[in-house]
Amino acid sequence: MTPLERMAGLSAGRPIDRLPCVPIVGNTAARVIGVRTREIRESGSLLAKAQVASYRRFGYDVVRVFTDLYVQAEAMGAKVRVPEDETAYLHGPAITGSGGVSDLRPADPSRDGLLPAHLEAVARVVQELASEVVVTAAVTGPFTTASFLVGAEVLAKLVLREPATVHRLCEVALQTAVRWADAIIDAGASPSITDPMLSSTVVSPRQFREFGLPYLGRLIDRIHERGKSVTLHICGKTQRVWSLMADAGADCLSIDNDASLAGAKVAVGQRVRLMGNVPPVAVVFEGDPAAVRGAVRVCVREAGDSPRGLVVATGCSLPTETPFANIDAMVRAVEEIGWPPRVTPEVDA
Amino acid sequence: MTIETNSPDPLFGSLSDAVVNMDELETVRLAGESLNLGIEPGQAIELGLVDGMRRAGELFEREEYFIPELLICSDAMYAGLKVLEPHLPRGTVERRKGKVVLGVVEGDTHDIGKNLVKIMLETAGFEVIDLGRDVAPVAFVEQAAAVDADIIGLSTLMTTTMGAMAEVVRLLDERKARPRIKVMVGGGPVSQQFASRIGADGYAANASAAVVLARRLREDAMEAATP
C-alpha cells in the first residue's frame, strides 16, 4: 500500500494496513544526504534531494518541503541569520515600528528571497514522488509572518494598542501567503499551514478570533477553491482554539504535544482529522526507540479511533540531529499496531 | 486628619489596579500623586506597582491574560517605577533579592519568554542583567563573574541552541564558578529531564515558576558563598 493509497483509504473510511505516520522531518533531511542545513535552505535541488531521500529512508506518509518559518517574511524584507549548519533564525524584522507598514509589499514567489529555490524543490519532489505520497510545502500563517515583519514583542503590544496596524500587517502577510500557496499548488503540491504565534501560549482565544481566524479563513478558502485540503499546525497550547481552527476551514489539525490528543478527539474529532502528538524533543530527539514506541502507543490509545482519522505524527518539527533509529522506531511502532488501530492497556502492561 | 488624608491604602489599591488594567497614564499619574501625598515611594512600589504586576502574573497563569496583556501591564509598571525610583531614599534601592544574568542563548532570537522572565524576576525584587538574545556561552559566564551574579538564566525556543546551554554549564565548571553561581534554564523545547542531563541547577516551565526557582537557587547560592 503506498502512502497515497493509505491516506485515501483513511479518508474514505476503508480498512487500511495501518494509520499514516508522519515524523515531521525538516532539517534532519540534510543529514540523510550528508549536507549542511544551510545548503538545503539555499538550493532547490539539494532541498528536493534531501526530502526525497528522507522519505525513501524512513517510509513515512507525508512529505513536507520545509526548512524554517522565515522564508516568506525574508522575501518581504525580514532579516534572517543562517548559520552554516544550524536552523536559520530571525535576526531582525522587516520594518521598525508601525510606521513602516505601508512600505511592505507582498512577496513574489517567482522572484523574491528563497521562494523561487523552494518552489523548485517543491516541483522536483512532486516529479519524483507525487505518484505515491502526498507532497506538501510549508506556508507560514499570516499572523506569524506579521510577527516576523515587525518583531514578535512589538506585534504583541500592537494587538492591544493598535489593532488596525495588526490588521494591515496580517493583510499584507496574507497576500504573500496566498501567492505562495498558489505557487505551491501550481507546482503540484499541497500547502500545509503553520501559525505558531496564534498559540494560546501567546495570544488569547479572543485575539485568535480577531487576528487569526479571518486571515486563516481566507487563506484556507483559497486553497480549497483550488481543490486541496489543508493541515493547520499551531504550536503549544491550543485547546481553547481547536473549534476556531476548524472554523477557519482546516481539514486536519496538527496538535502539539503541549495539548491533549484525547481532548481534541472529543472536541473536534467529528469535524476534522487529527495529527499528533509524539513529543519531538523529549521523546524522539532525546529518548530511545522504546520510548518512541511507548509514546506512539499513547497517541493511538488516545485518538486512534478519532472519527475522521488520526495521523500519528510528532507534535512539532523534529530537531535536526534526531537519531535516525528513533524515527525508524516511530514508523515501526505504527506498523506494529496495524489495523484496526487499537491499543489496549493490557497489551502494554 | 493628616492620617486620614494620607491613608495610603486606597492609593496602593488604585496603583495596583492601574497596572493590572494596563493603564500606563493612570499608573504614572497615581505614582506622581503618591509622591505629592508624601507616601514613601518604596511602599508605593511594593504595595502598588509590584502588587499589580503580581496580580497580572496570576491572571496570566490562569490564562485570563496572555502575552500581550502581560507586556502592556509591565510597561505600566516600569513607567510607574520611573516616576518613583528617583525618590527612593539612598540605600533603600537595595531591595534586591539577588542578581540574575539573563539571556537567550546563541543561535536564537526568540526573546519574549526571556523578557517575561525578566519582568517577573524584577517584580519579585531581583536585579536582572539582561544580555539580550543570541548570546555566546562565554558571555554569560564572564558577565556573571563580572557582576558577581547569583544565577545565570538561559532561555531558548529552538532545539538547535540547547547545546549552548550545556556549554555554559561546562564553562562554569571549568572555571570552578559553581556552586556559587547557579544555572536555571527554560523555554519551549527544554525540560526538567534536559536540565538534569546537562547539570543545570533548575528548570522553570514559565515566568512565575522561574521566580520561585530563582528564590530557591539564590538561597542555595548564598549558602555556597558562606565559608
Helix content of chain B: 55-70%
Low-confidence segments of chain A, ≥5 residues, pLDDT <50?
A: none
Going across the major beta sheet of chain A, what is the strand order?
1-10-9-8-7-6-5-2
List SSEs of chain A in N-to-C order.
HEHHHEHEEHEHHHEHEHEHEHHEHH
* Shape annotation of chain B: globular
Instruction: Tally the beta strands of chain A.
Output: 10
Q: What is the terminal separation of chain B in angstroms?
A: 53 Å
Largest interface: A-B, 28 and 28 residues
Class by alpha and beta content of chain B: alpha/beta
Offer a quick outline of the entry.
The complex is a heterodimer of chains A (349) and B (227). Chain A has 349 residues and is an alpha/beta fold.
Fold topology:
The complex is a heterodimer of chains A (349) and B (227).
Chain A lengths: L2 H10 L8 E2 L5 H5 L4 H6 L1 H15 L3 E4 L5 H5 L3 E3 L7 E4 L22 H15 L4 E7 L1 H9 L1 H10 L1 H24 L3 E5 L10 H21 L5 E4 L7 H6 L4 E4 L5 H8 L4 E6 L1 H6 L3 H15 L6 E5 L9 H14 L7 H4 L1
Parallel strand pairs in A: 1-10, 2-5, 5-6, 6-7, 7-8, 8-9, 9-10
Antiparallel strand pairs in A: 3-4
Chain B lengths: L1 H4 L3 H12 L3 H13 L4 H21 L5 H18 L14 E6 L7 H12 L3 E4 L6 H11 L3 E5 L6 H13 L7 E5 L5 H7 L3 E2 L3 H19 L2
Parallel strand pairs in B: 1-2, 1-3, 3-4, 4-5
What attributes characterize this protein structure?
heterodimer; A: 349 residues; alpha/beta; 8-stranded parallel sheet; two-stranded antiparallel ribbon; 13% strand; B: 227 residues; 10 helices; globular; disordered N terminus
Describe, in plain words, how this protein is organized in 3D.
The complex is a heterodimer of chains A (349) and B (227). Chain A is 50% helix and 13% strand. Chain A is globular. The mean pLDDT of chain A is 96. In chain A, α10 links the parallel β6 and β7. Chain A contains 16 helices and 10 strands. In chain A, α4 runs parallel beside α6 and α7 (142-150) crosses α8. Chain B has 10 helices and 5 strands. Chain B is globular, with a radius of gyration of 19 Å. The longest helix of chain B has 21 residues, at 41-61. Chain B is α/β, with parallel strands linked by helices and 227 residues long. A 5-stranded parallel β-sheet of chain B has the order 2-1-3-4-5, sandwiched between helices. Mean pLDDT of chain B is 90; it is low at 1-7. At the A-B interface, β4, α8 and α13 of A face α5 and α9 of B.
